[in-house]
Model the fold of this input.
Amino acid sequence: MKTDPTASTNNSEWSLDLLSHRAANLPAAFNMSGAPGVISFSYGLPDEASFPAAELAQATAEVMRDAPGPALQYGAPDPLLSYLVDFIGRDQGLELTTKNLLVTVGSSQALGLVCQLLVDPGDYVVVEAPTFLGAVRTFLNAEAEVVEVPLDNEGILIEELDQTITDLKAAGKRVKFIYTIPTFQNPTGVTLGLERRKALLAVAKKHQVLVLEDDAYAGLIFEGEVPPWLWTLDQDNLVLHCGTFSKILAAGLRLGWIGGPPELISKIAALKVDGGTSPFAGNIAAQYARDGRLEKHILKLREIYRRKRDRTLAGLERYMPDGARWTSPQGGFFIWLELPERLDTVKMLRDAITAGVNYTPGPACFASRKGKNTIRLAFSHLPVEQIEPGLRILGEVIQRNLTAGA
Amino acid sequence: MKTDPTASTNNSEWSLDLLSHRAANLPAAFNMSGAPGVISFSYGLPDEASFPAAELAQATAEVMRDAPGPALQYGAPDPLLSYLVDFIGRDQGLELTTKNLLVTVGSSQALGLVCQLLVDPGDYVVVEAPTFLGAVRTFLNAEAEVVEVPLDNEGILIEELDQTITDLKAAGKRVKFIYTIPTFQNPTGVTLGLERRKALLAVAKKHQVLVLEDDAYAGLIFEGEVPPWLWTLDQDNLVLHCGTFSKILAAGLRLGWIGGPPELISKIAALKVDGGTSPFAGNIAAQYARDGRLEKHILKLREIYRRKRDRTLAGLERYMPDGARWTSPQGGFFIWLELPERLDTVKMLRDAITAGVNYTPGPACFASRKGKNTIRLAFSHLPVEQIEPGLRILGEVIQRNLTAGA
Done:
């Protein structure tokens, strides 16, 4: 028996040699735990008070009473797949079959599977700048090269996208897909307009690259309307669409899905050698969702998050200095804050945490680590009554840093 | 909008071009659904009647009442990790901390992560012959080269293992790890003896390769004792050990784990970009398992599977022809059946299914597809009263095929 299995190995020479190329120089694992007493705008976590805990216990009791076998055995959560076919039909007018869809372990597994499907080391993936860095990390783990295209208040810039892919192809690079979060984007909150959606699809068609549409904030709309999904608008089988139950039901269930052309979905299914996405969680979620119950729950969530957004916008108006600008998202979890150019939000973070407020510095949302004067504010997780005090502290920290840097 | 999103794409030229190397020539996804009315010894699924459905509903109610937040939010199932530290300490005398362990989405995710950690395309993995083909498929998906080493009734042959790795290294190949199921092996049911365990570790140390120990059938012992884990015996931080709750609690929860040296586990954690293994399923499992309840449940499972094994051995004795041989497993789910050499169990399968019995042909358990006169019998899933009739039919099919081939 080992005397101390937690001790560092003495074998670092061989162990580094045994590691795969991708594992050899990994960053540390992500840690979401926050400092106690600090008001955190940092993580895009769902509102915990909104989780329908009692209803999920009830749904579990029903599934365990009526159909425990399929929920506890190996297999797939077929009831959830059927729910998705119906739901997407009602929501988007897309007539799908279960061959268009695969339930995944959150949408994060879907992102990983798309990389397995499409990416060989050195292939290129085009992303928005800024974007969701968790996705970028998945692409980098697959040894993809990641190239950024900027966005504005209406989403990714189409001409720049076209030019970027044209240049890459001219340089002999293989571009595999465009990764986009077209609705209530992470981290900016902006939504890609209808005309740009069509133009993006035209660019994809012109260059014959796929589009990976990440719709993590689906349904969390506060007012007005959003255009149809890229998948819905697509005429050329160029779109893979991933969604999640993490933000509209409960992240802890780890349920997401990917949709697309059956011949790509079947290949993704063949790559998904994991014994099937949890039929326990999936069948419980489907039982919970029946009879429009999930859709009613989403209506409640819209109110919860709209209220938090409104409170955040009001706080920004009140506490941000001259020259600061921010987005006004129509839904989702995030507001993007641009501060005077001379501020460095990475350096300022320690000061902010000491003062009692936390945020995600903008550079953490760029593959290229630019955006040093920007901040992502997640208004989704913290209690609504902490928003105004949090922004007041943030305003003071910014003011102090502006004065110090002046 | 698409008119028929389930139609086959017209873009097969580009889509093949866009696919990754590994995805371009994938086999179809595995399908576990059986023909109705056929007695199936085919799949190593757990006994469905044994699932503690009511107790899991009760545990869910408790978690949803007492601590819904951590179970429904992003994060990790920390209570299950703590349970594992205690359980492994009691069972193996290994003094671990949570840094030695990571909860995974079944042990299948652990296998995939080990490939990400260690395997670059063209690297070599050594497996037992026969072995669990699901693991081999994961290795092949990672573009590993898979080399087989035979086993006998006491497990993998050590001299052959040593020679195989020696030859590979002499040929300039990079051998990354030995994949072994030392206890109640899938598909043979054999258990690696203590001396061979030590010898295997010596071979790993000599060649400086890692050992991936898959202990999927842990605890399902019917009599006697089994040697300590390879991980427990290891003095050199050479072993990664994966386990699962699929066979001892419920496969549908999708909960497994991997243990090993902290510096490898932390790298695996960094590669596991999936939002965390379900805290919903994990916290419920931990709540269920508390106060020795899971260990009591395992005692019941031992009786259930021992009875099925005994019934299978009795049926084989009664119905198998002269010249047939089979293993006598001390635990687990499987018996390995060797039939007269002239039989082809792949060809015979159609006949068997028509007659009303299903099995896994031996070649499906060899990376090299050899073993044409062998069969894996899973006694775990089918109702105990179907075992004798099933083996009677199988005996008739074999007799008919022997006569036809004579």
